[in-house]
Amino acid sequence: MKSLAIILSLAVLYGCAEKPAQQQAAPPQALPVTEIKVDTATTYQDYPASIEGAVNVEIRPQVAGTLDRLYADEGAYVTKGQPLFKINENPFREALNNAKASQQAAEGAMANAKLEVEKLTPLVQNKVVSEYQLKAAKAALQVAQAQVAQAKAQVGTAQINLGYTVIKAPVSGYIGRLVKKQGSLVSPSDAEALTQLSDVHDVHVYFSLGETDFVNFKAQYAGKNLQDKISHLPPVALVLSDKSSYTLPGKIDMIDGQFDKTTGAITVRATFPNADGLLRSGNTGKVRLSLQHNNVARVPQDATLELQDKVFVYAVGDSNKVAKQPIVIEGKSGSDYLVKSGLNPGQQIVLSGVDHLQDGMKIAPQKAVDKTNAVAKN
Q: What's the pLDDT tens digit per position in 58-85?
């Protein structure tokens, strides 16, 4: 009886004990998602560039002598044919006078030789003198004629050298630094030019493309060959060293014939108008190329996961379950990837928190602001 009472008491106590609450399943995590839209985007790539005048000419003397005058100052704008330097002309004027005197002497000798031929001709016909004497006279006349021609050439050379004492601008442009000053001795063999003259009405801007960039560059534009593609290229922009943009667009008009073996890059030239002379030879900057990407989707980098050199996103499927999906990247636009393939229009992907997701996990999707229509700019 005592044992029975104890058992009943325990049963009453157990029945009166509070039942443990059943553990409820955690709700799905709320994460932002976006719907994929395919569109056209434009990206920009900058390449370091050097600027040169359309014509860059070294001004060098063609005769040796002393600089008597400098007609233009450093940095001055000069027109084609305008005198720049004057070399002392006295030695060259005397050389011209000497050449003219030699010409007159040669012409006198030729006149004498001609008279000798005229004198001997009838005598030979009348058989007064031998024919040999006439042939010798004619040969002497030919020698005299050659000496006259030589003397005339020497006069011409002396006149040319005299003209070289005035050094004129071969093109219109801006004068560079003047290395030699008045009174300096100058010579054609000098290692350094007198100055440089730059025609900067148009400027050439040179930059380089690596092999991969060049392949993408060629594939981007229509054309049967490279020259045809160049004619279809859109205008390019120039970013100056102070980060400001040059106001006028340029045009790519030349691509080098081969890659540089040292750098593995190929040189490209763009020409920019520069009527106001704002750009000068020696300036530096960056050429900004635009690249158009067709049928691409913009995906924030925060929405991607990189594993073993591959990029993944988490796509939202049936019952709001996520699945890891590889994508192919075509380019970058700010903090976004431009996705070439791997996603379909209308598909939803998770925008953030992907580091804590696993395949098959269920989420509570929340719509996020769509940015796929923005224009890219690097």
A: 999 999 999 999 999 998 989 999 999 9
> Distance between CA atoms of 325 and 350, rounded to whole angstroms?
11
What is the predicted pLDDT for the residue at 375?
Answer: 36
Q: Label residue 339 exposed, middle or buried (CB < 10 Å: 0-12, 13-18, 19+).
A: buried
Task: Dump strand ranges (E) for the chain.
Answer: 29-35, 39-59, 65-70, 77-78, 83-87, 166-168, 173-175, 185-186, 195-210, 237-240, 251-255, 265-273, 284-300, 305-307, 310-316, 322-333, 336-341, 348-350, 363-367
Only one residue has tokens 């709001």, namely 320
Identify the CA nearest to 76 among candidates 195, 225, 247, 217: 195
Those residues with Cβ within 8 angstroms of residue 217's Cβ, 6 or more apart along the chain or in another chain: 209, 289
| Contact predicate 316/348, CB 8 Å | yes
Both tokens of 263, joined, read 């750098």
Which residue, among 363, 322, 369, 370, has the nearest Cα to 31 in the 3D structure? 363
pLDDT digits 0-9 by tens, 289-308: 888 788 888 888 888 988 88
Q: Is the Cβ–Cβ distance between 355 and 305 less than 8 Å?
A: yes
373 Rama sector, left if φ>0, alpha if ψ -120 to 50, beta otherwise: alpha
pLDDT above 60: residue 376: no
pLDDT-derived band at 22, boundaries 50, 70, 90: very low
Mean pLDDT computed over 245-269: 91
Residue 315, amino acid: A
Which pair of structure tokens corresponds to residue 266? 């190929």
Query: Torsion-angle region of residue 37: left (phi > 0), alpha (psi -120 to 50) or beta?
Result: beta
DSSP symbol at 354: G
Residue with tokens 């990206």: 43
126-146: average pLDDT: 90
205, 51 Cβ separation under 8 angstroms: yes
Q: What is the DSSP letter of 301?
A: G
